Amino acid sequence: MDNRSVVILTQHIKTQLERLVMLREYHKNIKDPYVKSALSFVIEDTHEAIARVSSRLRQLGAVSVNQISAEPDQKLLHQSRSRRALGDKLIFVWRGLKYQNKWYEDQIKSLINDPDSQAILVALFEQARVRLERWENLMDEMKVPPDKWV
Asked: What pTM was estimated for this model as a whole?
């Protein structure tokens, strides 16, 4: 078992579980059908990412997902709840997707000694990259000013 892989994959699941709480809350509270649909896809991707990485952790003989705390990061929840306008919520999710893509890029390089885990992250990175592009299209359609994205 490659300990570096277990640490990275466990961190991934913990982060995804935290994001899931925020995404579900937005999905519940946002009324716009287009945004709700887009959030559904992001939530679905998050579930898939958790499942794929959980499976790999089991293959490595690591802890089960049930043993990983699903307690959300209070800072993340506070930040997400402080966004009042729909555009601000869209930007918050966009920043999370941008961060996720950067994290995948960095961790893929770290898993050079574990090609199976690396392949999973490459696939998840590609999925997240496409989701980010679609999210940016949604932000354009919703007329979120690009100068606010940064």
From this structure: 0.87
